[in-house]
């Protein structure tokens, strides 16, 4: 089954227009839980950790798992993951919704450190200073400065994103994340019911392809919240643009990390919040 076919579901609806009601076919974006498990330890004594459950749009689940592990600091490199597979030995209702990432036998697992990372990334409204410090720890190399922005390149991005959003045009219920090169050429696009999942899928795909992310831009279809900016910084992407607004903590992280941050991006205007000059 292709990623796009798995991403939509057909339903019958009652459509009301001008006081008249008719039956019609409609398409909804599919939303299902995905459990990410982690296999680790020596080959003769493998252990399993049930790591996370996220609501996502089916498709590109391996990329989602890889991107999640990397941006949350659970792995330092995609080379630490041998493979990501769909788990077959699960309950019938879980079939297709559980994946397991197999770590290399020599990778040391420290669940207590992971638990602290999860707390930090989920508590940005409570303890922003700790959150930003944690991201700096996760980020292994400084971001390459983007330099001066070309407004014509930046304002062309939303149109190119919209043209490529095939599932969104059919359902209207998806977030999108896309990587573009310095000239504004579309490199990768992923859609998902969750904005964080869309970004994790993009980063996972880039990691799997061994892309050099230091000269690329990330565009998201919603706002630039702290957690999305965090994922961008950890992934080493020097410019992030958003259709919506950044939060105050997201801006602080961008400024302290050297990330060029664009918000309220439209076809004819945008706000430049950090970098780019």
For the termini, the CA-CA separation is 46 Å
Main pleated-sheet profile: 6 strands, mixed
Tell me the CATH topology of the largest domain.
Cytidine Deaminase, domain 2
Number of domains: 2
Please write the CATH class name of the largest domain: Alpha Beta
CATH superfamily of the largest domain: Cytidine Deaminase, domain 2
Category from helices, strands and their pairing: alpha/beta
Q: Can you give me a brief rundown of this structure?
A:
The chain is flat. The strands form three sheets. It has a six-stranded mixed β-sheet. The N and C termini lie far apart (46 Å).
Describe this structure as you would to a colleague.
The chain is of the alpha/beta class and 277 residues long. The protein has ten helices and twelve strands. It folds into two domains: 32-122, Ubiquitin-like (UB roll) (Roll), CATH 3.10.20.10; 128-274, Cytidine Deaminase, domain 2, CATH 3.40.140. It has helices at residues 3-6, 61-71, 111-122, 128-138, 151-155, 157-164, 166-171, 195-208, 226-234, 248-257; strands at residues 8-17, 20-29, 32-40, 47-56, 81-86, 98-103, 175-181, 186-192, 216-220, 239-242, 260-263, 271-274. The chain has a six-stranded mixed β-sheet. A four-stranded mixed β-sheet has the order 4-3-6-5, with helices on one face. Helix 8 (195-208) packs parallel to helix 9. The longest helix is centred in the last third of the chain and has 14 residues, at 195-208. Residues 1-5 and 119-129 have low confidence and may be disordered.
């Amino acid at each position: 089954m292709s990623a796009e076919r798995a991403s939509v579901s057909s339903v019958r609806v009652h459509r009301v227009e001008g006081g008249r009601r008719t039956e019609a076919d409609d398409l909804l974006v599919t939303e299902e839980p995905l459990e990410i498990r982690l296999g680790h330890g020596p080959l003769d004594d493998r252990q399993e950790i049930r790591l996370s459950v996220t609501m996502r749009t089916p498709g590109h689940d391996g990329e989602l798992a890889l991107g999640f592990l990397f941006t949350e600091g659970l792995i330092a490199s995609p080379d630490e993951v041998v493979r990501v597979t769909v788990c077959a030995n699960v309950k019938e209702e879980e079939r297709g919704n559980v994946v397991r990432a197999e770590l290399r036998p020599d990778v040391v697992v420290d669940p207590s450190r992971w638990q602290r990372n999860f707390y930090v990334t989920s508590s940005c409204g409570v303890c922003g200073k700790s959150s930003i410090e944690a991201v700096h720890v996760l980020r292994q190399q400084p971001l390459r400065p983007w330099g001066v922005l070309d407004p014509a390149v930046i304002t062309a991005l939303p149109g190119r994103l919209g043209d490529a959003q095939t599932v969104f045009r059919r359902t209207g219920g998806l977030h999108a994340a896309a990587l573009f090169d310095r000239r504004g050429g579309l490199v990768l696009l992923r859609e998902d019911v969750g904005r964080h999942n869309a970004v994790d899928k993009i980063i996972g795909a880039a990691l799997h392809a061994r892309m050099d992310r230091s000269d690329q831009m990330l565009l998201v279809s919603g706002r630039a919240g702290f957690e999305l900016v965090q994922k961008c910084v950890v992934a080493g992407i020097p410019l992030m643009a958003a259709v919506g607004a950044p939060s105050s903590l997201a801006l602080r992280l961008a400024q302290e990390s050297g990330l060029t941050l664009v918000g309220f991006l439209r076809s004819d205007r945008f706000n430049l919040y950090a970098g780019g000059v």
